[in-house]
What we know:
This protein is an alpha/beta fold. It has a single domain, classed as Aldolase class I (TIM Barrel), CATH 3.20.20.70. Helix content is 42%, strand content 14%. An 8-stranded parallel β-barrel has the order 1-2-3-4-5-6-7-8, surrounded by 5 helices. The site of 1,3-dihydroxyacetonephosphate (13P) has 14 residues, from strand 8.
Amino acid sequence: MRTPFVAGNWKMNTTVGEAEELVVNMRDRLDAIEGVDRVLCPPFISLAPLHRILQGSSIRLCAQNMHFETKGAYTGEISPLMLGELCEFVILGHSERRMYFGETDEVVNRKVKAALAGTLTPILCIGEKLEENEAGRTGEVLKRQLTNALEGIEATDESRDSGRGGAAAEDLVVAYEPIWAIGTGKAATGEQAAATIGSVRGVLAGLWGEGTAQRVRILYGGSVTGANIEEFVSHPDIDGALVGGASLKAEDFLAIVGQTAKIR
Ligand code: 13P
């Protein structure tokens, strides 16, 4: 009942020229795959050119971050209003933002609210550190991150910016990305990820009710490749993947989306 979802987070990789080349290389073959939402998250400066290249394509665009204000004196920042013209999704709360740029749960919460108010659907990232995992604190950490990020948000909250369409809170996508699995080549096992994602869905049910929790897509992220995607999406609780490194290679990303379509 949930459409599988695969997003490629290019992080701080690709010049505009490289981004255009990568998309042109994948576009037609990605469009030919059915039954999977496919999303690309290039750097900010490539959103506008890719938006033009992807007119009429089924590939959807996503930003990697944004500020929570609509406009103003915030040198170097990008707002939800600006992004709303170019993309449908925005990654929020990625562990790299939390780790290197000091983003707190409170900031993530303000951004989730601003995204929804600005018609963007958040891909909300949560994940525990290695030491938290080893101390058996994964459940507690994820519950805190999710509850704080969604503080003051009802499942039925819709964009207040009527007239431009909008995103409902319950359309949000959650990405479970254990920090120890990101960029390390040491992915979680399908069993581990499925069990953790099941408990994340339980936290969502506590916040928004069981019916809504069953509709929200929850992805796994962390060293996903064409060689291990099957392990994840063969579990009915895992609705797809947020892919980093492997999304920078056309053949690998196509394999991940293609296999997801075949298995689900
Ligand atoms: P890798 O797939 O490179 O481990 O990155 C995962 C990630 O952080 C996606 O947001």
